[in-house]
Design a protein that fits this description.
Largest interface: A-B, 46 and 46 residues
Strand content of chain A: 25-35%
CATH topology of chain A: Alpha-Beta Plaits
Largest sheet of chain A: 4 strands, antiparallel
Subunit structure (chains A, B): Homodimer.
Protein name (chains A, B): Stress-response A/B barrel domain-containing protein HS1
Radius of gyration of chain A: 15 Å
Distance between the termini of chain A: 9 Å
Organism (chains A, B): Prunus yedoensis var. nudiflora
CATH class of chain A: Alpha Beta
Number of helices of chain A: 3
Number of domains of chain A: 1
CATH architecture of chain A: 2-Layer Sandwich
Pfam families (chains A, B): Dabb
Oligomer: homodimer
Chain lengths: 109, 109
Amino acid sequence: MEESKGVVKHVLLTKFKEGISENQIEELTKGYAKLVDLIEPMKSFHWGKDVSIENLHQGFTHIFESTFESMEGVAEYVAHPAHVDFANLFLSHVEKVIVFDYKPTTVRV
Amino acid sequence: MEESKGVVKHVLLTKFKEGISENQIEELTKGYAKLVDLIEPMKSFHWGKDVSIENLHQGFTHIFESTFESMEGVAEYVAHPAHVDFANLFLSHVEKVIVFDYKPTTVRV
């Protein structure tokens, strides 16, 4: 099994609080995306809504995935004032959240 | 916000049951990876262990991500006998699981 050198995927799953508007979610998503420009080790960002058909999404409705050059880069991001400010805002709007970091690993079978 | 045309990411987060061995997890991971060869619309697969530092992973320890060419491709995968057999085996070993499908969308800010 081959672990990619250095790259770390940072995955956030969430269910927003009831009453949040689509406009507020869009603003939060844009705020998340802007971190790419503000925090050097954050290399890319994408997001999406759950479209699963197996009914195993456990109520989570949105995913946000960003990519970092290393675990040191994630640590720099976590401590960065722009992230701290955004995280405080973002987390005030969520009912539940999971944040999961991993080094993508492929398998030769 | 730009949704990629067609591609669907299929994300599975899990915590395996206590007592499962590293060897069993490796066998399950290889079995998951083999589905790429067995189910045509499943285009790629990678996995990883949680290395997060924010303590928001909610006990989840492993992630498995596969990519499909479309939602129709995911439906074909879900119904495929090779997937059904593997899912029954895999799910018998997990304490909890989330399966989340989404169309990756980028944001221009």
